[in-house]
Amino acid sequence: MSARAIPYRPHNHDACVSQALADARAICQQHNARLTPIRERVLELIWQSHKPLGAYDVLGELSSDGHNAAPPTVYRALDFLQQNGLVHRIASLNAFIGCTHAGQSHTGMFLICRACSNVLELTAPMVTSEVCKAAAGEGFRAENTTLEIAGLCPRCQAEPGHD
Amino acid sequence: MSARAIPYRPHNHDACVSQALADARAICQQHNARLTPIRERVLELIWQSHKPLGAYDVLGELSSDGHNAAPPTVYRALDFLQQNGLVHRIASLNAFIGCTHAGQSHTGMFLICRACSNVLELTAPMVTSEVCKAAAGEGFRAENTTLEIAGLCPRCQAEPGHD
DNA sequence: GCAAAATTTGCAACATTATAACATTTGCAC
DNA sequence: GTGCAAATGTTATAATGTTGCAAATTTTGC
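The joint structure predicted for all components is written out below.
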């Protein structure tokens, strides 16, 4: 898996999408999980941009496709994709974003720009290790970490209004 | 502000509540903010336990009080309490919990037991500093951090089923 | 005190996000 | 091709959160 583009900066986004889909196919094959057309399509929609997409946004896009979908269709696809580490749910936004570290075991940390909405996923080993240390200090067995940072991305600090 | 009780362990919870209410009164006075009866009552309800309470749970309790409340009443009170640093919203649970560090500027980190639902709020300076470092490394200006750890508290690791 | 202004609350409707329950179809093993 | 498990379709509903405006209360300026 090669270096990732920075979401905040213009880039060849089609490459992001094809990479993500290729990774997904490989990972599902490994897991013996079925990346059905709906699931793949939902993943593709999530990867339309580096902005988190709500379940009902996905639903809307599916409808534009001519697909007669209802909420459970979307939520089931999203559950599947989450199970297989292909998308993350951003709890503070009730929205979903493609995982940029699919296949790597990781604890995601998300930098969410409040101006342009783009999200950068990081793995910050030092953060993870301090979190574990803090939890362990209380005798707590950490299983799942939600770490979401809202703020301003470099681009929006300089000049506002990108999307 | 004295040492805090550990939510996972039995303790004199009335003391938590009165401490929280006393702190709240002091803080609101400082801020020239009005801790009206409704707001105080909502804070008290939130502090019923160390388990996060949903907005509609609060609403239900208000109704049991005989108070004829609608959702906006609760959400407005919760907003006020959040503004003044008296409660936190747990994004991963859509629920609210009393702040155990009211008055101190802090970035909360929450240890959420999936078995007993109790939540411990920590301030972990090393975590905060690593988070800032990681964000800064990307040129990101962090404004607001959501850090929620789900897992098992010490008590529930030993024997399950507490509440 | 008293009227004007600002804040808070009441209230009705509605918007958004997510799930439950059950029927139907599809893919796969044998 | 029969039978089973997984995936999808469909309808309804639950859970969470917001908007907009009117009424009541509190504060402020005088």
